[in-house]
Design a protein that fits this description.
It is a single chain. The chain is mainly α and 112 residues long. It has one domain: Helix Hairpins, CATH 1.10.287. The chain has 4 helices and no strands. The mean pLDDT is 86.
C-alpha cells in the first residue's frame, strides 16, 4: 500500500509543478494546493499505514496507531484552506483592478 501511496504522491507533485509553471494565476494557486495535498499524503505514508488500537493509557496495548501524523495533516489541511482562500480573493482583486490574470501582462503593467 505504501508503494501505491508513493506513486500517488509523485503524480500529485507532478501535476502541481506543471500547474505552477503556467502563466495563469489561478493555475498557480491550484498547483500550490495540489502540492499541499501531496505533502499531506507523504506525511501519512511516512508515518506508516498501520492498524492498531487507539493509544489509551489505561489499557495495556502493545500495538497502537501514532496520532501525531494525523494531527499534523489535520492542521495542514486547515492552513491550506485558509491560504488558498486568501490567494483566491487576492487573485480576484487583481483581476478586477488589472482586467487579466496572465502574469506576463501583469508584469508589463508594473513597468509603466
Amino acid at each position: 500500500m505504501e508503494t501505491v501511496m508513493s506513486i500517488v504522491v509523485g503524480i500529485l507533485f507532478t501535476i502541481g509543478t506543471y500547474l505552477m509553471l503556467s502563466k495563469n494565476l489561478l493555475r498557480i494557486i491550484f498547483g500550490s494546493s495540489i502540492i499541499s495535498h501531496g505533502i499531506n499524503l507523504l506525511i501519512m505514508t511516512m508515518g506508516g499505514l498501520k492498524t492498531g488500537s487507539p493509544p489509551l493509557l489505561s489499557e495495556k496495548i502493545h500495538i497502537f496507531t501514532d496520532p501525531v501524523p494525523q494531527a499534523l495533516i489535520l492542521t495542514a489541511i486547515v492552513i491550506n484552506f485558509a491560504v488558498t482562500a486568501f490567494l483566491l480573493v487576492l487573485s480576484y482583486k487583481i483581476y478586477k483592478v488589472y482586467g487579466t490574470d496572465d502574469l506576463e501582462l501583469l508584469r508589463g503593467n508594473e513597468d509603466e
